[in-house]
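S.,

Sequence below, as promised.
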Amino acid sequence: MWFHWLTRRRRAHILETPFPEAWEAIVQRNVSHWSLLDDEERSRLRDLVRVFVEEKHWEGCGGLEMTDEVRVTVAAEACLLLLGRDHDLYDDVESILVYPSTVIAADRQQGVFERGGAVVEESEAILGQAHKGGPVILVWDAVKRGARDPDDGRNVVFHEFAHKIDMVDGPVDGTPPLPDGEALRSWAEVCSEVFLALKRHEPEVQRVLDPYGARNEAEFFAVATESFFERPAALKGALPELYALLSGFYRQDPAAREPRR
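The prediction came back faster than expected:
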């Protein structure tokens, strides 16, 4: 109770400062989804970004200089997932490490469902990586590409922060924190059906979900999140039950959004 009161007080203090004009320009330039938000959603996103930038630890790696452009772009993309939720979905996010371009992930012995492991299976070139109880690693080139193209179905920030949401309630199993057993049963029923269809390479599913999601349930949730925000109309048309499930969880309906000035 005391901790929550301190958190609310700290965040209220952060929000006393107006959203910087320079930050607004960064979001307008780099975050294409901004044009799809209404005034209420934009105001909400500004508040989320201010708190997120302040509360997380940011580090530039591999020669990248950590600037407001990097922080605000990543924060805005990550907080798009929170428009209908709150910061508690990112309780497992403490640090964000950003490299300038593709990096090689170190070998890891633990499997994707083992406690403390990162969501990557072997040493390979990566654009992002999420560690349970550890940092989110991002590649700035990929962040910019994903943020500026709103409908290509690929967004490394959405992907890696979906993994972090998955990690909040423990196992990295493709199931985010849900309110009750009924919600869990619905999640398992809908997602397992689509996941298995993706593993069978069914064309109608692959048209709206990246085949990478067939690697395991954790990657399926991350890929489904990307598609939900990047290709909402296509996902809703092809897989309405999955779209409804994600809409209920994120408490958003991106398919209903229209471009604004």
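The CA atoms of residues 232 and 255 lie 5 Å apart.

Coffee later?
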